[in-house]
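subagent[fold] <- orchestrator: predict structure for attached chain, return tokens only, no commentary.
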Amino acid sequence: MTTTPPASGGGWLGGLADWAVGLMETIGAPGAALAIALENLFPPLPSELILPMAGFAASRGSFSLAEALVWTTLGSVVGAFVLYWVGRLLGRERTRRIFGALPLVAVEDVDKVEAWFDKHGAKAVFFGRMVPVFRSVISIPAGVTAMHPAKFLGLTFAGSAIWNTIFVLAGYYLGEQWHLVEQYADIFQKIVLVAVAAALVYWVVKRVRASRSSRDQSPSA
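subagent[fold] -> orchestrator:
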């Protein structure tokens, strides 16, 4: 008998959810770990969907609550560490060249971001693990700036443990209503994305104005 929760919704997201459910049914808690690890590498597979599923599966006896918490956190750390090494292998100079070649991006902007991360990197990694979408991408600048691997792993483990525990416990105690977690998490994610989009638009407008002002002030040939 199937003990894991049915996937919610349809389309490609429902298909991804069905796949995650299948992993948990087939190999138990390690399946949840694998799904969460892949979520770090492929953000469209949301942790806000997988984690409550793992909690509900634990409430039905597929595996213990402790196993759900340990394995999902392990999966988060492994997935984040893969992206950390992507950034580490790219390195500072290669990253500067890649972003410096993009329209409206000056190398000075990349240097400012790097300086900010050097100053606030620990908080960025820790709290970034609890922000949708940024959960994945925050690992790359940590690698680019060569944050010590042990420090990165410790911060990632702590942030992931908090985030995962909240959603796994929600699924565990909500039982058949586990999908309600996904609905509220989706609202939060949309708020975050709107805020980031607004900040990005502001930055682009500021860069365009600075570029025009620089051209206007340059001497005529």
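orchestrator: received. Logging for downstream: Residues 179-217 form the longest helix (39 residues). Residues 1-10 have pLDDT under 50 and may be disordered.
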